[in-house]
Amino acid sequence: RRKEQVGGKCPQKHEGSTVHCESNTFLSAHTQSTIQPMAQSNCTQVTQFSLVGFTEELVTQGNLFLLFLLTYLVTIVGNLGIIILIRASPHLHSPMYYFLGNLAFVDFCFSTIVTPKMLVDLMLEKKSIAYAGCVAQVFLFQLSGITECFLLAAMAYDRYVAICHPLLYPLVMSPKCCFQLVTGSYLMGAIVYTWCVFGGSFCGPKLIDHFFCDVSPVLKLVCSDTHSSEMVIFAFVTINIVGTSVIVAVSYISIICTVLRMCSAQRRARAFHTCTSHLMAVALLYGSAFFMYLQPPSSHRSLDKVASIFYAVVNPMLNPFIYSLRNKEVKGALVMCRRRFLNHWQHKTVLSSRT
């Protein structure tokens, strides 16, 4: 029987390979295919990935660092400011602002998961991330994204009840109901598909063509069959994104029908004004999410980085401005808090001068 030497090496061997097999057994031709999976099972698992980032030009990296640093600072100030303002203003203690406060918290987490690591990588020549860090980043990013989708759906339902059934609003949107909707949003976000991404074998290059660990770029590095994982991920995304977008669409169709039946033009304008901010936030998030995740990973293009910047960095920065600049109640609460702070500061100044 003809013998042939089979080295226990992975199908691809090059610098940056994530798997190293240790076997030099002489096998017969008909048993090679049987033993090969056993040889692969003794492979060393990947410990870290490298990130491509945006560009290798130092001047461009410096400009991007300043731009994203400014964006992140505005995101922190805007979202934490919304949370503090809602907690400090009693007349903002309503279901609408309860959801808005949680949305600001999720946006803050959304940006923090990606931006600090991205800023550090822009200052380094070698951009790398540990395997455990990559898994954590994918998990937390999915958690924040899915939670935000369900929070936006809950906010759409809140607007539907407020406009279409105003007399039932205090009963339907009770504190208990609001707490259940927010808790359910976080629980749905916890049902993620990270195991589908990291469940395969990484036998090829460990270079992620992205500026952070996202589902599609990491899935491209898996050397085993990813068809079933792609189908599971597509199903999860369809249920979460499409399902919540249907809730938003049905809510606003009912709102539009109700508003058009109103006799007073002033009431119609006020009703549409209360929904404009939420619709803008929905359009920004769902537009980029549909572009990124409702397509097979094999068809992803270079524009994915632009879409990722938009929903991971820009959108969390814009949401506080969308909800505050077009909202008279938020602007009124901000003016009252500023007056309260100035009065307190003047009072302390007068007392210190007397002493």
TrEMBL record:
Keyword entries, A-Z: Cell membrane, G-protein coupled receptor, Glycoprotein, Membrane, Olfaction, Receptor, Sensory transduction, Transducer, Transmembrane, Transmembrane helix
Pfam families: 7tm_4
Membrane-topology annotation of the record: Multi-pass membrane protein
Main location: membrane
GO molecular function, one term: G protein-coupled receptor activity
Membrane-spanning ranges: 64-85, 97-116, 128-157, 178-202, 231-260, 272-294, 306-325
UniProt-listed InterPro entries: GPCR_Rhodpsn, GPCR_Rhodpsn_7TM, Olfact_rcpt
Coiled coil: none
Keyword Cell membrane in annotation: yes
Compartments in which it is found: Cell membrane; Membrane
Any one Gene Ontology cellular component term annotated for this protein: plasma membrane
Sequence similarity: Belongs to the G-protein coupled receptor 1 family.
Function: Odorant receptor.
UniProt name for this protein: Olfactory receptor
